[in-house]
Amino acid sequence: MFPTMFCPMLVTRALADSTNATIFISYGTGEVRVAPVNDTLRVGAVSIPRQGIGVAGSVTADYASSSYDGLFGLGFPNNSALNSTPPFFNMIQEGKLQQNVFSVWLNPDLAALDAGEITIGGLNHSRFSGNLTM
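Below the sequence we write its predicted structure tokens.
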């Protein structure tokens, strides 16, 4: 799931540097209690040291029964529930992307195993036709 509101993610607590705080985040019909931490986040070949993330301490039933195990926020920094710069913006600031964009493709065939994809730092030109102005 890639929301554009906030940026908590699940990580192993032993690898993280905790700030000893707790934040309650509501999203949709569920709520998550997270501990804000800083850790090295890896997305594909990109590594972001000391990235602010949230370690889930408890979740409501809506999240516990879901098919995903974390959230990766793509929203603006001022929308971050963790008061930290989201990974996408850190990738931009550190010059780790070929292009400062992300693109999302959702498969219109709801029964397909290939439900969609996200491309960070570029576009998958095979997923659209025509001109794209940025």
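The CA atoms of residues 8 and 54 lie 4 Å apart.
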